[in-house]
Write a structure and sequence with these properties.
This protein is mainly α. The protein contains seven helices and two strands; from the N terminus they run ββααααααα. The chain has a two-stranded antiparallel ribbon with strand order 1-2. It is elongated, with a radius of gyration of 23 Å.
């Protein structure tokens, strides 16, 4: 409520104030749960597809790595990191730990593979990696949310 110049109360009848108060938190909670799950899927899908793509283009990827001074012997580890890390993020398994590792991996790849700032595409790829690392750090700080294996394990451990 607020008052007018005559100090008469004015009743707030906006739609938000007249709805059932219990419906708003439930709807907000549902949106949050779905948003957290969708965000994890969207974030991890890039890594899943990239890792699977590296399997299909193994020789070309190994050559690209070697051209930038990265031993091609690391490619199986890179593929495992991307594919298994993505699956873990999607299902919400050990999310904070995996997200921290993937944030570090993403920053490392930005500095190794996208450091030619004279090339606008590489500069954008570098910034994209920084943004992705930021998203992983949000998962480190906040966890996977209730629609995850982490939350399921937390409920069963009580």
């Amino acid at each position: 409520m607020s008052t007018t110049a005559n100090s008469k109360p004015i009743r707030d009848t906006s739609p938000d104030q007249t709805k059932d108060a219990s419906a708003k938190p439930a709807a907000t909670n549902t949106v949050r749960k779905i948003s957290e799950l969708t965000g994890r899927v969207l974030l991890a899908s890039l890594f899943l597809l990239s890792g699977l793509g590296k399997i299909g283009a193994y020789t070309a990827t190994a050559g690209y790595m070697m051209a930038l001074g990265v031993p091609s012997a690391l490619l199986p580890l890179v593929i495992a990191t991307e594919v298994l890390g993505a699956i873990a993020i999607i299902v919400g398994w050990r999310t904070q730990t995996i997200a921290a590792l993937l944030a570090g991996f993403t920053l490392l790849t930005a500095f190794i593979f996208h450091n030619n700032f004279g090339d606008q595409v590489q500069a954008v790829m570098f910034l994209k990696n920084l943004s992705i690392a930021g998203a992983f750090l949000l998962l480190v700080a906040n966890g996977a949310g209730p629609l995850s294996l982490d939350a399921k394990h937390a409920r069963t451990d009580r």
